[in-house]
Amino acid sequence: MIWGYLTEFWNAIIGVAEYPIEFFKSIGNAVAGAIGNLFEFFIHNTTDIFVFAGWFFSNFKNFFGNILLPVRYVYTFLKEFIATAFISPTTSAKEVWNFGGDVMAIFNAIPYWSMLSAVLGICIIILIGFVIVKRFTHI
């Protein structure tokens, strides 16, 4: 059926006049361009659909994951709590800073050393706090 139609079409072209080779080349280029444009349109729209589907499902996954985030947090907390609640605790070092007895004897000889060291520590913390606030206000 298709071949009959093409034969009739060809006979209609030949029956009108004699055409040079350039005419048939231009018709071939036009037909090739039309077919190429048809496939480009189809491929372009198909890739647009796939890009949209990828974007949609990626956002759907993120949305669904964010909805389940509290459940995942509770599950992880309970799992780790149960895993660590019934094991014996690990022993760690008693003191991080070990001073010798001679050094501690010198500091203990200073009157009210425990109160003085606490006040010095509080002053250092306050100074660091002022420095942090000053740095944030200058930015």
Task: Walk me through this protein's architecture.
This protein has 139 residues and is mainly alpha-helical. It has 2 domains: 1-92; 96-139. The protein is built from 5 helices and no strands. The protein has helices at 2-16, 21-67, 69-85, 101-109, 113-138. It starts with a helix and ends with a helix.
Layout of helices and strands, plus pairs?
Layout: H1 2-16, H2 21-67, H3 69-85, H4 101-109, H5 113-138
Please give the count of helices. Answer: 5
Kindly state the mean pLDDT as a whole number?
A: 83
State the order of secondary-structure elements, H for helix, E for strand.
Answer: HHHHH
* Shape category: elongated
- Assign a percent range to the helix content: over 70%
Distance between the termini: 81 Å
Number of separate structural domains: 2
The quaternary state of the protein chains shown equals single chain
Number of strands: 0
Structural class: mainly alpha
Largest sheet: none
Rg over C-alpha atoms, rounded to the nearest angstrom: 42 Å
Residue runs with pLDDT of under 50 for 5 or more positions: none
Report the portion of residues in β strands: under 5%
In short:
The chain has 139 residues and is mainly α. The protein is built from 5 helices and no strands.
Keywords:
139 residues; mainly alpha; 2 domains; elongated
